[in-house]
Specification:
Blueprint (H helix, E strand, L loop, with lengths): L24 H15 L21 E9 L5 E2 L2 E2 H14 L4 E12 L4 H18 L2 E10 L7 E11 L15 E4 L5 H10 L16 H10 L5 E4 L4 H13 L2 E5 L7 H10 L12 E5 L4 H9 L8 E7 L6 E4 L5 E3 L13
Parallel strand pairs: 4-5, 9-12
Antiparallel strand pairs: 1-6, 2-3, 4-6, 7-10, 7-11, 8-10, 9-11, 12-13
Helix pairs in contact: 1-3, 2-3, 5-8
């Protein structure tokens, strides 16, 4: 049996020091061994040079997004800051109809951060990028003094291509359209609360952190007339619905009995006095399709791992523009407003 011995590490010590951000050999060793050896960019230049057949398609559009991630703790049930950075950026592109292609990743690293932790985060990013079919092609690292950050912060930017003819946008939503979510709500927010250990919560909940570009492509293939989609991250489903209703100038009504929640999430919310509609998600979206194509959209979603629990939760109504309401378990209606303040900081 041929076995290749692992390369000896050039890094001294097991924690990041200010020297790793100083521009010299220590920084180069950290970048090469922890980041470049894993991401394997095609170029060693200060910029990525990108080519793809999709860019040559007449009428195609580039989509570009950026986001920063400061989640605490950086590792949590179901994911970590690296996975959430890839998923969040991929999903921001996908819900606009883009096919995500390339990501950049910049790291703000606190002095004293464990190098083993960085290795786990980078490996997680690369694994999720491969799963989503995207490449991490460029990036940056900076080291700050002890106490100036919290272990590590990550900023990712993403570039994708929107094929000709696609135009997912909130303004396309029309009265009668059906609202669909791809799965249960609130898992990420509840998992983060439990992982922090501040409230003595005991639960097996895991974050729903996942890339949704495969799901979106499946739905668009089955229902090219998808109106709009939005990933329900900070502020949860309630904030996403309000953003869409305001942008489209429509009212949206959802049914409480249709909103999918795990009993554990419902229980956590009841104990802490939280509304699950505002809990953050990192692998859940809401999309709108014409009513006569809702079953086709649901069928396409159910055939994917990210959409097997998809369900219709409501519809676009004739009420005042920008208003979101929910029909309650008791048959009444309640206003579902935008989140005021923040239920839980540093959720992503």
């Amino acid at each position: 049996m041929n076995m290749t011995a692992p390369k000896p590490s050039r890094l001294r010590g097991d924690r990041v020091t200010l020297a790793h951000g100083g521009g010299g050999k220590a920084m180069r060793d950290l970048i090469d061994e922890v980041f470049t050896d894993v991401f394997q960019p095609e170029s060693a230049e200060d910029q990525a040079r990108l080519t793809h057949d999709a860019l040559l398609e007449p009428g195609a559009q580039l989509a570009f997004t950026t986001d920063s991630f400061v989640v605490s703790p950086v590792e949590f049930p179901g994911g970590d800051i690296g996975k959430i950075a890839v998923c969040g950026t991929v999903n921001d592109l996908a819900v606009g109809g883009a096919k995500p292609l390339w990501l950049s990743a910049a790291f703000i690293i606190e002095e004293g951060c464990e190098i083993a932790l960085l290795r786990r985060i980078v490996a997680s990013m690369q694994a999720e990028a491969r799963k989503a079919g995207v490449k991490i092609v460029t990036g940056d690292t900076k080291v700050v003094g002890k106490g100036a950050a919290d272990q590590v912060f990550v900023t990712t930017s993403g570039v994708g291509v929107i094929p000709k003819g696609r135009n997912l946008r909130a303004e396309a939503i029309q009265p009668g359209d059906v609202a669909i979510v791809n799965g249960v709500l609130g898992d990420h927010g509840a998992a983060i609360m439990a992982a922090r250990g501040d409230m003595a919560l005991s639960t097996d909940l895991q974050s729903d952190c996942q890339s949704l570009n495969g799901l979106i492509e499946a739905v668009i293939e089955a229902v090219p007339e998808v109106r709009a989609a939005r990933d329900a991250t900070r502020g949860g489903l309630a904030s996403s619905l309000n953003e869409l209703a305001n942008a489209a100038g429509v009212s949206i009504e959802i049914d409480e009995t249709a909103v999918p929640l795990r009993p554990e999430v419902r229980g956590v919310c009841e104990i802490l006095g939280l509304d699950p509609l505002y809990l953050a998600n990192e692998g859940t979206l809401v999309l709108f399709v014409p009513a006569d194509q809702a079953e086709a959209a649901l069928g396409a979603m159910h055939a994917t791992s990210a959409g097997r629990d998809a369900v219709a939760i409501g519809h676009v109504g004739q009420g005042p523009a920008g208003r979101v309401t929910m029909r309650t378990l008791f048959g009444g209606q309640r206003l579902v407003d935008m989140l005021v303040g923040e239920q839980l900081p540093r959720i992503c």
